[in-house]
Design brief:
With about 450 residues, the protein is mainly alpha-helical. Helix content is about 70%, strand content about 5%. The N and C termini lie far apart (about 75 Å).
């Protein structure tokens, strides 16, 4: 057999280059390396829910939180339909809100001191019994005072959103970027619940029977809290009360921060009432719900996008920028309303909603609050913020309603502009009064 004296090519590896020992025509052949995948826009959220137990407690919390947007609408439709008085229905709901403002911080303090599962489950059971008592009183024609007493019992409802935020803060106590993403997700979840809740309540009360919204809300809330409380592995540890410890409301910077939440709530409350009045005045009252949903959708989308972005380093500067943007965008509905077109107002509410109460402004406000309030009182501090927000909603609703009735519905959009401007001034006053956390 002939002997082949041509050797087979030998390849030597040097770095990322293959060098052929005897073939100069392909002396350099670059090694193929797989391309690096760029992280997606929502990678921070995937990382968030990769945490063991996160999906389970989030699912339970969502079930428990959805009725928050159902109960007031369900109560109004149930009482007004049975007693023929929207004034009575509104008074009952307003009384429940006032009692909640007093009771909720105490419930949150018990949660911080004794644990979420030990307090949230019995507190929710009392609230559910109050809702069912209201249903029975309406159904069987009980005296009006029983409606007030029954609805006041629902004030023990725990702040499920605050408990969820406290879990994220515990899980990512050493990761500010993850906490920013978690706060953004929670705000988007709040907005989604308050967007879907009234729609679900109105559908149930009209398609089935007047009490269906209240009954469904009670079942969902009790089920959700039981699922949430069962996830003990992610529950923050309890801290015994320290003698002489100050209430969160007395901490440096907290009063000014709560004032910002109060003014921001006024933006949201006045916008809602004025839009209802404007749609009714334009002869399209049935379209008020979908129009307001556009504002909520803009806020929800902005919250999710804000959470996926890398935040600026100083939380106080972020809050100032967010409130300034909110103030500027509040002029859009005011200008659109001057045209008299509901379609123009609807188009303006979408971008305006991207900066209003429950989007970047609230996300950053909660981040600042977590830097002010110690971990042992965090749920109480966040409940105080929600209470301030609800107080602002009530005040804004009254101011917007007065303007819409005594001036014009279009002029009523001046109320959210004024409220946003007050929030901006208060935010500027926060400089030097809070410990601004960095990300």
């Amino acid at each position: 057999m002939p002997v082949h004296d041509t050797p087979s090519p030998l390849l030597a590896v040097s770095g990322d280059v293959l060098i052929a020992a005897d073939r100069p025509d392909y002396a350099y052949a670059p090694r193929r390396t797989p391309p690096r995948r760029r992280p997606g826009r929502f990678s921070p959220y995937r990382r968030l829910f990769a945490t063991p137990g996160a999906r389970a407690f989030t699912a339970g919390n969502f079930l428990a939180r959805l009725p928050m947007g159902m109960f007031s609408v369900s109560a109004v439709m149930m009482i007004a339909g049975s007693r023929g008085s929207y004034a009575l229905a509104g008074a009952v709901v307003a009384t429940g809100l006032a009692v909640t403002a007093v009771v909720a911080p105490w419930t949150a303090r018990l949660v911080d001191r004794h644990g979420q599962a030990r307090v949230a489950v019995p507190a929710t059971a009392v609230a559910v019994l109050g809702s069912l008592a209201l249903l029975l009183c309406v159904r069987h024609g009980a005296p009006d005072w029983t409606l007030f007493a029954a609805y006041a019992a629902t004030a023990t409802t725990p702040n499920t959103g605050g408990m969820s935020r406290a879990r994220w803060a515990h899980l990512f106590r050493d990761d500010p970027a993850a906490r920013h993403t978690a706060n953004s997700f929670e705000q988007a979840a709040d907005e989604l619940c308050f967007m879907l809740g009234p729609v679900a309540a109105a559908f149930l009360c009209t398609a089935l029977f007047p009490e269906a919204g209240t009954l469904t809300g009670a079942v969902l809330m009790m089920t959700g809290v039981l699922v949430f409380a069962a996830q003990r592995a992610t529950e923050p540890p309890t801290t015994p009360r320290t003698p002489g410890a100050r209430s969160p409301v007395r901490l440096p910077g907290m009063p000014a921060l709560l004032a910002v939440f109060l003014a921001t709530g006024a933006v949201f409350g006045s916008m809602e009432v004025v839009t209802l009045a404007f749609a009714d005045g334009a002869g399209h009252g049935a379209m008020a719900g979908p129009v307001l949903a556009l504002q909520a959708a803009g806020s929800c989308a902005a919250g999710l996008l804000y959470g996926s972005a890398r935040p600026a380093r100083h939380a106080h500067r972020r809050l100032l920028v967010c409130v300034a943007a909110m103030t500027a965008l509040m002029f859009l509905p005011l200008v659109a309303a001057s045209t008299g077109s509901l379609a123009a107002v609807a188009a303006a509410l979408l971008p305006a909603g991207a900066a209003t109460a429950t989007a970047p402004t609230m996300v950053t406000g909660m981040t600042l609050l977590q830097g002010v309030v110690p971990a042992a009182r965090l749920n109480e501090g966040m409940t105080l913020a929600v209470t301030a927000l609800l107080g602002g909603i009530a005040a804004g609703s009254a101011a917007g309603g007065w303007l819409a009735e005594h001036v014009t519905p279009a002029a009523g959009y001046g109320a959210p502009v004024a409220s946003a401007a007050v929030a901006l001034l208060l935010c500027a006053a926060l400089t030097g009064t809070t410990k601004a956390p960095t990300s």
